[in-house]
Inverse folding.
């Protein structure tokens, strides 16, 4: 059988057609603009592909409560035009096939634990550190949703004693996302994260916050593996620093 997959991101929409074993047969990418410009070409792409279901991993926040009248909607987002947009319903009306929907991070988590290195593990934490920070939790083999979905990028941080930065999060200031996202690094140090590779103090501080968050999450979730993704983690020197920081907590 063939399936459709859509990664609905804030910058781009990645559409793919694949098979049961995870083989991707084809894929395209469409820039994310307003919904009325963005969604019709995606529907056209999937029409005629003979897919039997479509899985969507989307930017949120999403209403994922199956009993809710607005199930499948993007709820209040800062992305212009997308608040209260019926993401799942628009595709199910147009394509008349079953639609699976989850957050972008839960999509990555599911991919990693189905086809990736963590296949077969029952308890896994996935965190992306990019423009924002978000995460997904696989616990006892199931993706944790709770009432809606976790927002673990917004857990509060104890600021480093030497760090005077006020934080980038418009809601909490010094939460994990506020202190450790790509834009937070850029604002704190006055340069793009990618240009700061050689500056040890940048990554020591970054590891301090990521390590603090991971220590809290390890105590809460007890994962067998933690997967760190997102643009900032291209700084691979972070991995040993984070391991050290977690042990220190
Ligand atoms: P998004 O979160 O928007 O989906 P990414 O995961 O690529 O996309 O994250 C983008 C963020 O990651 C930006 O803030 C950027 O500065 C940062 N970033 C991208 N590449 C690197 C890199 N090689 N080193 C450090 N930071 C990076
Ligand atoms: Zn926050």
């Amino acid at each position: 059988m063939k399936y459709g997959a859509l990664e609905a991101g804030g910058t781009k929409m990645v559409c793919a057609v694949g098979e049961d074993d995870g083989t991707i047969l084809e894929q395209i990418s469409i820039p994310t603009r307003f919904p009325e410009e963005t969604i019709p070409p995606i529907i056209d792409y999937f029409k005629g592909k003979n897919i039997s279901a479509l899985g969507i991993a989307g930017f949120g926040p999403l209403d994922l409560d199956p009993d809710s009248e607005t199930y499948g909607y993007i709820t209040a987002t800062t992305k212009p035009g997308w608040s209260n947009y019926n993401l799942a319903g628009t595709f199910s009306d147009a394509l008349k096939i079953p639609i699976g929907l989850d957050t972008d991070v839960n999509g990555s988590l599911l991919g990693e634990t189905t086809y990736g290195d963590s296949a077969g593990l029952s308890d896994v934490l996935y965190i992306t550190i990019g423009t924002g920070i978000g995460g997904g939790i696989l616990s006892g083999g199931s993706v944790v949703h709770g009432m809606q979905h976790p927002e673990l990028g917004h857990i509060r941080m104890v600021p480093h004693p030497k760090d005077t930065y006020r934080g980038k999060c418009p809601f909490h200031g010094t939460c994990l996302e506020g202190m450790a996202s790509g834009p937070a690094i850029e604002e704190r140090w006055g340069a793009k994260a990618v240009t700061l590779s050689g500056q040890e103090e940048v990554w020591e501080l970054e590891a301090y916050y990521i390590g603090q968050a991971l220590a809290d999450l390890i105590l809460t979730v007890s994962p067998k593996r933690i997967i760190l993704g997102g643009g900032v983690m291209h700084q691979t020197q972070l991995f040993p620093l984070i391991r050290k920081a977690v042990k220190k907590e």
Residues 154, 169, 171-172, 175, 177-178 surround zinc ion (ligand 2) (CB under 6 Å). The first strand starts at residue 2 and ends at 8. The helical segments are 35-46, 87-95, 104-114, 176-180, 182-189, 200-221, 238-248.
